[in-house]
C-alpha cells in the first residue's frame, strides 16, 4: 500500500522520511508542496533530490477524495459530494462571506449519535474518515476555489460541522487539525478552526490536552429530560457534566467562551420558559449562543420556529446579558444547510448497538 501523504502531519511525515533514510527537513518541504501549493505530482517538487523524486511515486501518493457532485446555491454556497470508497460519499460545504470563507468539513461517513432532528443521523453510521479524507476536503476546496479570489487563500475558516461526530474520531481528526494549524500547511489560527460536538465529554478533554481549537457544543435543550430526547448522547453525558467539561476546556481554549448551538424547533425547545432555563445553564460556563433555525428534510417530524419566535427567544437571552447570534441559513436550496448533509452512506451498523460500543 502506498502511503497517502495528504494524511500525514509534520510529525507523521518526519517519521515517514526517517524510515526512508531521508533527511528530516524533507517533511517540511513536502508539507509546503502538498498543502500550500496543492501539488500532487512528485516530479514537480523541484527542490527534492532527483533520486527521491523518482522513488516517491512507488511508495507514496497524494490522493484526495473524488468529487462526484458539485452544486452551487443561489447565495454562493457550494457543496461537494466526495466519494471516499465504493460504498460511501460525504459532503463538504463552502460558505463565502464578505471577509471570510468558511469550509464545513465532515469527519465520518454517517453518524452514530442519531440526534432527533438531523438527517445525517437518519442514515446510520458506516466508518470514520481517515486524516487524508478529512484534510482532503480542505485541500480540494482551496484547489477548486483558487481562481475565484485574488491571491489570498479562499478558505480562511474551518468548522468541523459536517457529517459525523469529530470527537468520536479524534485519532484521525487531531492530525487533520494539526495540519490546518501548521504554518507550513494551512496556517490557520486556532480561533479560525472550530470543532463542533454533540457533547462527547472524554473527547472534549482529549481535544483540550492535545489540540485545543475553538469549541462549539450542540446544546439544543436546556434540561436533561428534553435533551435526552433530542440529543440521545445526553443520556450518557448529562448537562451538569457537560458544563463542567466545557469549563475545563476553557482553561486551554483559544477563545474565552464556548459557542452553544441551539436549533430552533417549533413548540419543542423554543418557549420563553426554555429561554429562561437556558440562562440558568449559561451561568455555569462563559458562553455565546448561536441559534440555528431548523432546516427541514423529508419526514423529519419537526418544524422551524417562526422568525418572530426566534427573535423573541434571542431577546430574552440578550436581556440577561448573553451574546446571541442567529445563524443565517445558507445553501438550503441545495440541501447544504446545517443538518441537511446526507452524502451517500451505506449503513453497516445496527445503531443502537454501535452507540453502546462507541461509548463503552
Ligand atoms: N456531531 C457534531 C458535528 C455536526 S455539526 C455536532 O453535533 O455538533 C452540525 C450542526 O447542525 C449541529 O449543531 C447540529 O445539531 C445542527 N443540526 C443538525 N440537524 C439540523 C437541522 N435539521 N437544522 C439545523 N441544524 C441542524
List the helices and strands and how they pair.
Layout: E1 3-4, H1 10-19, H2 26-36, H3 50-59, E2 60-61, E3 66-72, E4 78-83, E5 89-96, E6 101-104, E7 108-110, H4 119-122, E8 125-128, H5 131-145, E9 157-160, H6 170-181, E10 193-197, H7 201-210, E11 214-218, H8 224-230, H9 239-250, E12 258-264, H10 272-282, E13 287-293, H11 307-319, E14 323-326, H12 351-359
Parallel strand pairs: 1-2, 6-9, 9-10, 10-11, 11-12, 12-13, 13-14
Antiparallel strand pairs: 3-4, 4-5, 5-6, 7-8
Helix pairs in contact: 1-2, 5-6, 7-9, 10-11
The protein binds S-adenosyl-L-homocysteine.
Describe the structure.
This protein has 360 residues and is an alpha/beta fold. Helix content is 34%, strand content 19%. Strands 3-4-5-6-9-10-11-12-13-14 form a ten-stranded mixed sheet. It has a two-stranded parallel sheet with strand order 1-2. The radius of gyration is 21 Å and the shape is globular. The two termini are 32 Å apart. The protein binds S-adenosyl-L-homocysteine.
Amino acid at each position: 500500500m502506498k502511503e497517502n501523504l495528504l494524511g500525514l502531519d509534520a510529525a507523521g511525515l518526519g517519521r515517514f522520511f526517517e524510515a526512508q533514510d531521508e533527511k528530516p527537513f524533507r517533511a517540511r518541504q513536502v508539507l509546503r508542496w502538498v498543502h500550500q501549493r496543492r501539488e500532487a505530482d512528485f516530479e514537480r517538487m523541484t527542490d527534492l533530490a532527483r533520486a527521491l523524486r523518482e522513488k516517491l511515486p512507488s511508495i507514496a501518493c497524494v490522493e484526495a477524495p473524488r468529487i462526484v457532485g458539485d452544486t452551487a446555491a443561489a447565495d454562493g454556497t457550494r457543496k461537494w459530494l466526495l466519494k471516499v470508497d465504493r460504498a460511501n460519499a460525504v459532503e463538504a460545504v463552502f460558505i463565502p462571506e464578505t471577509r471570510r470563507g468558511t469550509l464545513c468539513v465532515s469527519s465520518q461517513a454517517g453518524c452514530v449519535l442519531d440526534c432527533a432532528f438531523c438527517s445525517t443521523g437518519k442514515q446510520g453510521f458506516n466508518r470514520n474518515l481517515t486524516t487524508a479524507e478529512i484534510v482532503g476536503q480542505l485541500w480540494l476546496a482551496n484547489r477548486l476555489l483558487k481562481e475565484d479570489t485574488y491571491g489570498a487563500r479562499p478558505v480562511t475558516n474551518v468548522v468541523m460541522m459536517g457529517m459525523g461526530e469529530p470527537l468520536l474520531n479524534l485519532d484521525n481528526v487531531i492530525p487533520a487539525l494539526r495540519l490546518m494549524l501548521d504554518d507550513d500547511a494551512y496556517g490557520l489560527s486556532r480561533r479560525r478552526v472550530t470543532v463542533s460536538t454533540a457533547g462527547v465529554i472524554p473527547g472534549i478533554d482529549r481535544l483540550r490536552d492535545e489540540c485545543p481549537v475553538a469549541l462549539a457544543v450542540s446544546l439544543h435543550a436546556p434540561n436533561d429530560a428534553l435533551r435526552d430526547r433530542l440529543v440521545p448522547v445526553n443520556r450518557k453525558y448529562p448537562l451538569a457534566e457537560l458544563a463542567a467539561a466545557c469549563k475545563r476546556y476553557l482553561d486551554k481554549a483559544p477563545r474565552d467562551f464556548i459557542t452553544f448551538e441551539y436549533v430552533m424547533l417549533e413548540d419543542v425547545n423554543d418557549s420563553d420558559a426554555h429561554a429562561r432555563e437556558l440562562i440558568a445553564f449559561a451561568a455555569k460556563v462563559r458562553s455565546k449562543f448561536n441559534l440555528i433555525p431548523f432546516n427541514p428534510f423529508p419526514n423529519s417530524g419537526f418544524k422551524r420556529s417562526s422568525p418572530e419566535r426566534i427573535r423573541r427567544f434571542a431577546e430574552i437571552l440578550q436581556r440577561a446579558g448573553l451574546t446571541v447570534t442567529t445563524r443565517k441559513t445558507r445553501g438550503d436550496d441545495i440541501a447544504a444547510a446545517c443538518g441537511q448533509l446526507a452524502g451517500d452512506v451505506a449503513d453497516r451498523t445496527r445503531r443502537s448497538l454501535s452507540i453502546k460500543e462507541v461509548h463503552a
